[in-house]
Design brief:
The chain has 157 residues and is mostly helical. The protein contains 8 helices and no strands. Helix 2 packs across helix 3 and helix 6 runs parallel beside helix 8. The longest helix has 22 residues. The chain is globular and about 60 Å long.
Length: 157
């Protein structure tokens, strides 16, 4: 089966009744955890972005508690998992300010974790890719916000 384009889906959704649309959304939420998380964000958390960011930060904090600092291989795996978590929640929001805030927070937690990222090229690559993503998301913001986020970025660098 070939998937329809976004335009075709939009046209199809415009033609159905609200009751049918509700049943489609509920059915979508049953299939994948990501679908359910996205619907939860859109319904309950989109209006209060600050509390959403704080809840994601607390989840990142919990993930950092399990980071294995003795073995660099496992530390790399744990960091990649944390970055995947952050990226998933950033994708739900779609806002550059949320992206920059969460990625800066992950970098800050990496610095506090005690991992010697300079000794491992793998960890350094993860960290540098985060810095690159932060700079990309900052570059698309308004000038005043760019200044604020660049200040935060300079603090962790």
């Amino acid at each position: 089966m070939k998937a329809a384009t976004v335009k075709e889906i939009k046209t199809g959704l415009e033609e159905i009744s609200p009751k049918e649309l509700l049943s489609i959304c509920l059915r979508l939420s049953k299939f994948k955890k990501e679908n359910k998380e996205l619907i939860t964000y859109l319904l309950f958390e989109e209006q209060d972005e600050e509390s959403y960011i704080n809840s994601v930060k607390s989840e990142i904090d919990l993930a950092f508690e399990t980071v294995n600092t003795t073995n660099l291989y496992f530390a790399k795996k744990n960091l990649r998992k944390i970055v995947r978590i952050a990226n998933r929640y950033i994708k739900y929001s779609g806002k550059e300010s949320t992206s920059a805030t969460l990625l800066i927070y992950v970098c800050y937690k990496i610095k506090l974790s005690g991992l010697s990222i300079e000794k491992s090229q793998m960890l350094l690559n993860i960290y540098n890719s985060l810095i690159k993503k932060i700079k990309n998301s900052i570059s698309t913001m308004h000038e005043d916000l760019q200044y604020d986020y660049n200040q935060e970025l300079n603090e962790i660098l």
